[in-house]
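User: Just a sanity check before I run the rest of the batch. Below are the structure tokens for the first item. I only need the designed sequence back.
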């Protein structure tokens, strides 16, 4: 029989003067306070310094086991979590839907409980169903980290996005961020909205009316279907991939029509402020959401987001695993 689920762990206060982290799980940005988000970002900044050293590993999670349990395909997120765990000296096991007992009819709960019985300390879950990570977190003693659940949330992507904005522009509060594309089916958009608003940014959503309905205004954001009107105002443009796998055909115009109305072309990019950042969570559809020339331009921080994702996921693993103090990062 597996251990009873825990609601918290020994508080980890990795930075002097910062509040303790008491959550065993990271399920949604919506659950976090601004102080908790800032704690993750500050912890990530410390771990990013570790990645710049000759010896990039620290013993913070030595003896811990992480299971990457990805029911949906992923490259960036799964690899980022795997590298983050290796950098923290944890053991890592990767499991996909096709290699798990789910393909034989076993339930998600039973599969996860078997992993926990094998002493998995942290389970990183990506699942096509919204609420899957929360479901497991309420039933397992292991820490559960949501790596994307349906069209609900993708919390570590939002954390690396705001980390990148803060690193490049020095702050998040007071900035104007435009999120452009498929908002309705995007878990990244939801997590970004919550993170940006909690940290004091102004958010405008842009896209076709079918994919950016006015109902999102209830969250405290602005909605517009005219990309050209908003570009000169914003400090950050975050472009989203079209979620073809989660939508029906009637939601989406043709690719050519979408690019003509909402793609960040060279002409549109010229209307941005000189220091405006261009972001994309990936994978990029070049020539659809963004021109290749703009994706590779100096003000694009798309690769910075990938780099920062490693530091952010190190911070999340460290905090949720209850590792204690960052004192351990002083030793290689």
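Assistant: Here's the designed sequence for the first item:
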């Amino acid at each position: 029989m597996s251990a009873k689920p825990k609601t918290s762990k020994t508080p980890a206060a990795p930075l002097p003067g910062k509040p303790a982290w008491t959550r065993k799980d990271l399920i949604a940005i919506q659950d976090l306070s601004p102080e908790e988000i800032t704690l993750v970002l500050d912890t990530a900044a410390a771990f990013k310094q570790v990645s710049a050293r000759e010896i990039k590993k620290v013993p913070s999670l030595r003896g811990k086991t992480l299971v990457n349990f990805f029911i949906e395909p992923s490259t960036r997120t799964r690899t980022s979590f795997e590298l983050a765990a290796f950098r923290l000296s944890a053991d890592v096991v990767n499991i996909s839907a096709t290699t798990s007992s789910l393909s034989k009819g076993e339930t998600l709960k039973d599969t996860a409980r078997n992993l926990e019985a094998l002493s998995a300390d942290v389970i990183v879950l990506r699942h096509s169903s919204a609420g899957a990570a929360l479901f497991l977190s309420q039933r397992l003693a292991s820490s559960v980290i949501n790596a994307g659940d349906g069209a609900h949330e993708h919390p570590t992507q939002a954390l690396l996005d705001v980390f990148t904005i803060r690193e490049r522009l020095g702050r998040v509060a007071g900035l104007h961020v435009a999120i452009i594309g498929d908002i309705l089916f995007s878990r990244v958009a939801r997590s970004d909205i919550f993170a940006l608003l909690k940290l004091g940014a102004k958010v405008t959503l842009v896209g076709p009316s079918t994919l950016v309905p006015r109902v999102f205004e209830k969250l405290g954001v602005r909605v517009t279907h005219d990309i050209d009107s908003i570009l000169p105002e914003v400090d950050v443009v975050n472009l989203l991939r079209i979620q073809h796998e989660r939508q029906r055909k009637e939601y989406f115009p043709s690719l050519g029509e979408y690019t003509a109305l909402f793609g960040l072309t060279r002409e549109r990019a010229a209307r941005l402020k000189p220091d405006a950042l261009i972001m994309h969570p990936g994978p990029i559809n070049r020539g659809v959401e963004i021109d290749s020339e703009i994706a590779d331009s100096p003000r694009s921080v798309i690769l910075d987001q990938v780099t920062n994702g490693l530091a952010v996921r190190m911070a999340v693993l460290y905090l949720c695993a209850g590792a204690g103090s960052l004192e351990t990062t002083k030793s290689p």
